[in-house]
Structure formats: structure tokens, C-alpha cells
Design a protein that fits this description.
Radius of gyration: 30 Å
Shape: elongated
Oligomer: single chain
Number of helices: 12
Largest sheet: 5 strands, mixed
CATH topology of the largest domain: Immunoglobulin-like
CATH class of the largest domain: Mainly Beta
Helix content: 25-40%
Strand content: 5-15%
Structural class: alpha+beta
Order of helices and strands: HHHHHEEEHEEEEEEEHHHHHH
CATH architecture of the largest domain: Sandwich
Strand order of the largest sheet: 3-2-1-5-8
Bound molecules: heme C, copper (II) ion
Number of strands: 10
């Protein structure tokens, strides 16, 4: 192994990649132990001795760099709240460590000092009121001490108050705390298996699903190799875009099953539950891309609905938002009355968006349509369009698919109540629906051979 000259260099120890900073620490300690003078001569080997191990563990705990780089600890995150949570976690961690050292210290010392081979006789008492009082009162005090910062953190999440630069709560003349003002609100809706983000009051909605590469790589006979996907299962087609240094209220709900919205760097996680609206807030201090996942356990594809948040400057955000508003029916979805979630939160009636209708060419519709079909429909109707048994009808040769456009759109937009054919009106954009229908009407010897435009879908959706 080479000399210690870089903080980021890594050892070639099997299984363990240990930050050089730690090894430098370790080397220094070792040097002291061995009385060597020059650092440069110190060589590092894969020493698996106990001392080496202890120094390594100690080094890991002490080196904040190791936390960031190797994820041995919670992330400090990019919001005040996440840093508060991190601080809380560290306080509790150190308390636990002190308790562990004291308790195990006394235990091992007692076992060693009062061992049988020294002829020590065990005491025979069965009761000690003093000891019982001590071991009840001390833990209670420790719990109370831990509860104070924990409660403060909870209040800062649930009922955020204005804080000054030092993190102290600001009070008005009467000594009352001042709630912080939310500058914008985003409604997050969980669907099987994607997220929808509504920028309330802006008329902009985004549907955010697993990116194409990850989706291809996760199939049974993948056409893309896992290693070739940079952020496997942590990337989406349309990320959530929010401005930096802005108080953002986030309302969470779901349209089908319980989901859970979690971006570790924001410091919180919230369930998105059908029929309920949960609330959280954030204020991200650092521009960047942050990734998270649906953290719900039960259900087959929660692991395939990642979250990506692009935090951009306020100017970039304003520009992005106006881009979303003009001209792009592709990304803009207007709210509709048949959408369950609008019933849940009446205040979300989004302003009608005046967007230029976009005409798609047949080729565009077919390419996009095949993609949407394979992602959304093929689980039931099969890639071949032949369906499965009696339950999932074939679309190849189907009377609906070869019949009137209107009936066909209605079937897909509103679904078939009481069957597995859900309503896709709220969960796919109008252009995705138009493309998928166009594809089914042209594929597998189907005879319709026509095109369905997003406008057609919109008309039926709003009828
Ligand atoms: C979860 C399973 C499932 C998925 C996913 C699904 N469907 Fe269906 N679909 C069904 C079932 C079940 C029916 C039969 C409903 C009934 O009994 O009327 C059906 C019926 C249909 C019909 C009517 C067929 C006929 O001949 O009656 C069309 C058209 C259709 N689906 C299109 C689509 C499209 C387009 C997609 C993707 C956007 C899709 N389906 C996704 C289960 C599904
Ligand atoms: Cu989920």
C-alpha cells in the first residue's frame, strides 16, 4: 500500500472501503503506539486486529466525512428541520453511548474485580429500595431530557413558528409565537404506481413516474442492464420542481391505496392516505436534485414509484412554471370533477388552463402510445393485446377498440366500475391516453386505423 497522501484515496482491503481520513487517524494513533516519527513511512495494511478495529470504528464515529460519504449515519439533509432531526439523533446517540459505556464498564469491572477465583462470595440480599429508586429516577430524568428537544422538533414540523438566525423562537409584543407564512402549496397524490403533483392555484400538474431506463431494467428479461442505469429505481420522467429558500406547504393524499412520500434530505416522511389530507412543509436551503421513494411497504410496486425533487433558484422556478402553463397540453392536466381527489380537497379546484391544443402526428402517437401501453396496460391486456383468460379481455379484435372513438375513450378515461379496468382519466395525461388508444386502434391487425388527439380525450373527460 502507498503512503498516506490523499484524503480520498481508498485501500484495497477486501470488503471494506475505509475513508483515508480515518486511516490517517488510525495511522497516527498506531504511530504513537509504535513510537514512529514520520507519517510518510507508515504503511497501511489490512490489519484485522482488535485495536485496528476499535480505531476504525472510533474513527468512523468521529469523522463527519465518513457519514456523508458512506452513509453510516443519517443524512444531515438540506432543510432546517432535517438538521434539527439530525442534531436530535446525535444527542440521543451520545446519551446512549455514555449509558452503554457506564453500564458495561461497571458490569465488566464488577465481574473482573469480584471474580470467584479471588475467593469473592456473592452477596445474598434480595431487595434494595435505594437501588430501585435510583434505577427508576435516573432513566426518567434521561427521558425528560430527551423529550425536550424532541418536542421542540415536533412543534417545528407541525406548527412551524418564525425563528431568528440563531434558531430561537421569535415572539411578538404579547409574548406569542408567530406562525411562519407558507409561500406556496403543492398537493401530492399517490397512485398505483406514480405520483401526481398539483401546484395549487397555478393550474399546473405533473405526473411523475419511474423513468424508462429503470423500468426496462427491472423487467424479467431486461433489454437494459442494471449497471447501465445511473439512478436505478431512483429516477422519474417528470421531477417535482420547487424553488429554493421558500416555505412550501405540502398536502398529501392518495387515490387508491396508502402510499408514503419520503425524501430523506428533507427530514420527514408522510403517509398519503385515500380520503385523508396529511400536511407537511419544507424549506430547502440548497439548490440540487434530491431523491426519495415511496416508503409504503404493502403493495407490489411501491418500490417502483421513486421521487425526484429538483430544487432550483426562484428565477428558474418562475421561468419553469410559466413554461408549464403555456402551450404544453402535454404536461398540463386540468382538474376534473370525476377525479376522486378533487372531492377530497374541494379547495383544489384548479383554474382552467388556457393552453394551445397540440396536434400530434400519427407516428408520434404510435411511438408514445406503445410506450404508455406497455407501461400501463400490458400487465392486464398483454403486450400481444390478447388479454388473459376471461377476466382480462383481448384488445386485439375487440369491438370497443375497433368501434367508435368516443366509446373507446370513455372506457379508458372512466374505466369499468366493479372491474380491474380502472379509470385512467386522473392518472394519465390526456396525451398519454390519446397515444395509448391510438396505439391499440392500430396495433395487432386492429382495423380502426385512426388517430385520437389529446383534445378529443379532454372533451370527453370534461363532458
Ligand atoms: C388492472 C388490469 C387492467 C389494466 C392495467 C388495464 N385494463 Fe383495460 N380492461 C381490464 C378489464 C378487467 C376489462 C374488462 C372490463 C369489463 O368487464 O367490462 C378491460 C377492458 C378494456 C377495454 C374494453 C375492451 C372490450 O372489448 O370490452 C379497453 C378498450 C381497455 N380495457 C383498454 C385499456 C387501456 C388502453 C389500458 C391502459 C391505459 C388498460 N385497458 C389497462 C383490465 C385492465
Ligand atoms: Cu406507493
Amino acid at each position: 500500500m502507498s503512503k498516506v497522501d490523499s484524503q480520498t484515496q481508498r485501500t484495497s482491503c477486501p470488503n471494506v472501503h475505509i475513508n483515508m481520513a480515518i486511516l490517517t487517524d488510525y495511522a497516527r494513533h498506531k504511530e504513537k503506539l509504535e513510537g514512529k516519527k514520520s507519517m510518510n513511512k507508515t504503511t497501511i495494511s489490512c490489519n484485522k486486529s482488535l485495536i485496528g478495529f476499535i480505531f476504525t470504528v472510533f474513527g468512523l464515529l468521529m469523522t463527519s466525512m465518513a457519514h456523508a460519504e458512506y452513509g453510516y449515519n443519517l443524512t444531515e439533509g438540506v432543510t432546517d428541520f432535517s438538521q434539527e432531526v439530525y442534531g436530535l439523533h446525535m444527542i440521543v446517540f451520545w446519551i446512549c453511548l455514555v449509558i452503554a459505556v457506564l453500564v458495561f464498564g461497571v458490569m465488566f469491572y464488577s465481574m473482573f474485580a469480584h471474580r470467584k477465583s479471588k475467593g469473592v462470595k456473592a452477596a445474598q440480599f434480595s431487595h434494595s429500595t435505594t437501588a430501585e429508586i435510583i434505577w427508576t429516577v435516573i432513566p426518567i430524568l434521561i427521558l425528560v431530557v430527551m423529550a425536550i428537544p424532541a418536542t421542540t422538533a415536533l412543534i417545528n414540523m407541525e406548527a412551524p413558528r418564525q425563528l431568528d438566525e440563531n434558531g430561537k423562537v421569535v415572539v411578538d409584543a404579547d409574548g406569542n409565537t408567530i406562525p411562519i407564512q407558507m409561500e406556496m402549496t403543492i398537493k401530492v397524490t399517490g397512485y398505483q404506481w406514480k405520483w401526481k403533483y398539483d401546484y395549487l392555484g397555478e393550474g399546473v400538474s405533473i405526473i411523475s413516474s419511474l423513468d424508462k431506463l429503470s423500468n426496462a431494467a427491472r423487467q424479467a428479461n431486461p433489454t437494459v442492464k442494471l449497471e447501465d442505469v445511473e439512478n436505478y429505481l431512483l429516477d422519474v420522467d417528470n421531477p417535482l420542481v420547487i424553488p429554493v429558500n421558500t416555505n412550501i406547504r405540502i398536502l398529501l393524499t392518495a387515490n387508491d391505496v396508502i402510499h408514503s412520500w419520503w425524501v430523506p434530505e428533507f427530514g420527514w416522511k408522510r403517509d398519503a392516505i385515500p380520503g385523508y389530507v396529511n400536511e407537511a412543509w419544507t424549506n430547502v436551503k440548497k439548490i440540487g436534485t434530491y431523491r426519495g421513494q415511496c416508503a409504503e411497504l404493502c403493495g407490489k410496486d411501491h418500490g417502483f414509484m421513486p421521487i425526484v425533487v429538483n430544487v432550483v433558484s426562484k428565477e428558474d422556478y418562475t421561468a419553469w412554471l410559466s413554461d408549464q402553463k403555456v402551450g404544453e397540453t402535454v404536461k398540463v392536466v386540468t382538474a376534473t370533477n370525476n377525479n376522486n381527489d378533487e372531492v377530497i380537497t374541494p379547495e383544489t379546484t384548479v383554474a382552467e388552463v388556457v393552453a394551445e391544443p397540440v396536434e400530434w402526428t400519427q407516428a408520434e402517437l404510435m411511438t408514445k402510445g406503445q410506450e404508455v401501453y406497455n407501461m400501463e396496460c400490458a400487465t392486464c391486456h398483454q403486450t400481444s393485446g390478447e388479454g388473459m383468460g376471461e377476466t382480462f379481455p383481448a384488445l386485439k379484435g375487440s369491438a370497443v377498440v375497433n368501434g367508435s372513438i368516443e366509446e373507446n375513450i370513455k372506457t379508458v378515461v372512466f374505466g369499468k366500475e366493479g372491474t380491474a379496468m380502472q379509470s385512467f382519466g386522473g392518472r394519465l395525461t390526456e396525451s398519454d391516453i390519446a397515444a395509448a388508444i391510438t396505439y391499440t386502434r392500430n396495433a395487432w391487425d386492429n382495423t380502426a386505423k385512426d388517430a385520437v388527439q389529446p383534445e378529443d380525450v379532454k372533451k370527453i373527460k370534461n363532458s
